[in-house]
């Protein structure tokens, strides 16, 4: 951060584009050169799968709530908070995937 001006404040932080899960899958597929699809699991199936993978229950519960929020359409809003706080534009999702493609590919293989 550029200063302590934002310490102890609730900030709504988003990217500059609101992307659907399907759009994210297309972007990742293109950059990572592998097919990624969004399967749209039920909340219970998602939770059960994450717990079976050994993810901690509290973390899974947060992921389920975030997933629910997106399914209700409450993630279409974008903000300029990143630019105000950091003094630069938000990193695009495309650039983020490019920057971390080695990590994504390592996870999948």
Q: What can you see in these coordinates?
A:
It contains six helices and no strands. It is 53% helix and 0% strand. By secondary structure, the chain is mainly α. The model has no long low-confidence stretch (mean pLDDT 88). It has helices at residues 21-32, 43-52, 57-71, 81-86, 93-99, 101-108. Helix 1 (21-32) runs parallel beside helix 5 (93-99) and helix 2 (43-52) runs antiparallel to helix 3 (57-71).
Mean pLDDT over the residues: 88
Please give the largest β-sheet.
Answer: none
The structural class is mainly alpha
- Helix fraction, binned, reads 40-55%
Q: Unreliable segments (pLDDT under 50, ≥5 consecutive)?
A: none
Spatial shape:
globular
* Record field, number of beta strands: 0
Brief sketch in words of this structure:
This protein is an all-alpha fold. Helix content is 53%, strand content 0%. Helix 1 runs parallel beside helix 5 and helix 2 runs antiparallel to helix 3.
Topology overview:
Elements: H1 21-32, H2 43-52, H3 57-71, H4 81-86, H5 93-99, H6 101-108
Helix pairs in contact: 1-5, 2-3
Give the tags:
6 helices, single chain, mainly alpha, 109 residues
